[in-house]
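Much of what follows relies on a compact textual record of a protein's fold. A complete example follows; check for yourself that the lines match position by position.
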Amino acid sequence: SLLGTGTVLLLIVTPDPWYNAQYVIPLAGMLINNSLSGVALALNQMMDHLTNSKEHVEVLLAFGASPWEAAWPGFIKSAQAALIPAINGMNVIGLVSIPGMMTGQIL
């Protein structure tokens, strides 16, 4: 997401200087908005996994698994949950967002 925003800002928009507030503030706002929803969902899912599977994680740790190995199933679930808003946004972009922007430009 950060790479995509940087590419749009530097290669497509090409403001002079690159940190021009007219371009950086809206793009940074969109980036932070998308990041916050994904991070909130991921943390919520990870905390739920660690709370609900406490015994399973403790058994894995007792048998010599590293903390990373013990938490891996929760990490997978939290990564999947964090990607849901981005995937849903991509599903709608061609059907709703682009035609809506074009209608606004024509009017």
Summary: Residues 40 and 82 are 8 Å apart (CA to CA). The chain has four helices and no strands. The helical segments are 2-13, 21-52, 54-62, 67-106. The chain has a mean pLDDT of 82.
